[in-house]
Specification:
five-stranded parallel sheet; five-stranded mixed sheet; alpha/beta; flat; 43% helix; 17% strand; single chain
Length: 281
């Protein structure tokens, strides 16, 4: 029998956040694929895990992935971890997981810590959906172009490096206005963790309050904006078209309105018109 590829989430700071299931998996597999074997050694040693480590990072993922696929084919279980958090989420690992699927191998997630989820849960923005944007481009021109493409009224989660966080916050204020709220989360689960929710117009002042405020790892959660009615209706109509393939007009309109924020009455009218046109063909 071929082996199983386990995708294991690891702590983003506090080593005690490693789950009991994750510990069992990391002890039982034949090899642990690590983003950095030296970083992972600290975590594994903390829990008495002596499993063989194998480096898989952004510079060798294809070649290393092929070797790991061979191990899986030979019947050996493999655990994939990153330096912190959930693998393949702004971290290496997606190519290996994709290859495992293409080979018909079993992939099993072992969920746990995620900086994006941790920050969003502590942000307090009420929303049925949110966008994960990961890291923005490093250069100002490319970053501003990427922000211009974000039209979502829903909250947006970004990762950012400490030496760029002030510039990114400034660009967010230019793009979305000083009144839109943001949550700045730094050093999540670590000793010097800080989480602040404030308007974008005040964010620079918060970052400049002390040199420590621009150190560590950052997650930024941009609060929700107000959807323009035309944009909401366009999005609702797009969603409606998909739902109508499987649902009655009333139910499709209800769900499309809930997803997009567009008026349910308008979507129901569009749904009836589309159903009528389809029936007359």
């Amino acid at each position: 029998m071929p082996g199983i590829l386990y995708v294991v989430a690891t702590p983003i700071g506090n080593l005690a956040d490693l789950s009991a299931r994750a510990i069992d998996v990391l002890r039982s597999v034949a090899v642990v694929a690590c983003e950095d074997t030296r970083t992972s050694r600290t975590l594994l040693s903390q829990h008495g895990i002596a499993t063989r480590r194998f480096a898989l990072h952004e510079h060798n993922e294809r070649a290393a992935g092929a070797q790991l696929i061979a191990e899986l084919r030979a019947g050996k279980d493999v655990a994939l971890i990153s330096d912190a958090g959930t693998p393949a989420l702004s971290d290496p690992g997606a190519l290996l997981v994709e290859a495992a699927h293409r080979e018909g191998l079993r992939v099993v997630p072992v969920p746990g810590p995620s900086a994006a989820l941790a920050a969003f849960s502590a942000a307090g923005f009420r929303s049925g959906r949110w966008l994960f944007a990961g890291f923005l481009p490093a250069t100002r021109a490319a970053r501003r172009k990427a922000l211009e493409a974000i039209e979502e009224a829903a909250p947006v989660v970004f990762y950012e490096a400490p030496h760029r966080v002030a510039d990114t916050v400034a660009d967010l204020a230019v793009r979305f206005g000083p009144g839109r709220e943001i949550v700045i989360a730094r050093e999540l689960t670590k000793k010097f963790e800080e989480i602040a929710r404030l308007p974008l117009g005040e964010a620079q002042g918060w970052l400049q309050a002390g040199p420590h405020r621009r150190q560590g790892e950052f997650v930024l959660v941009l609060g929700p904006g107000e959807a323009r009615s035309g944009d909401a209706l366009a999005e609702g109509t797009r969603v409606l078209a998909v739902l109508l393939d499987a649902l009655p007009a009333s139910e499709a309109a209800r769900l499309a309105a809930r997803i997009s924020g567009a008026p349910r009455r308008d979507l129901y009218r569009i749904a009836l018109e589309r159903k009528a046109r389809a029936g007359s063909r």
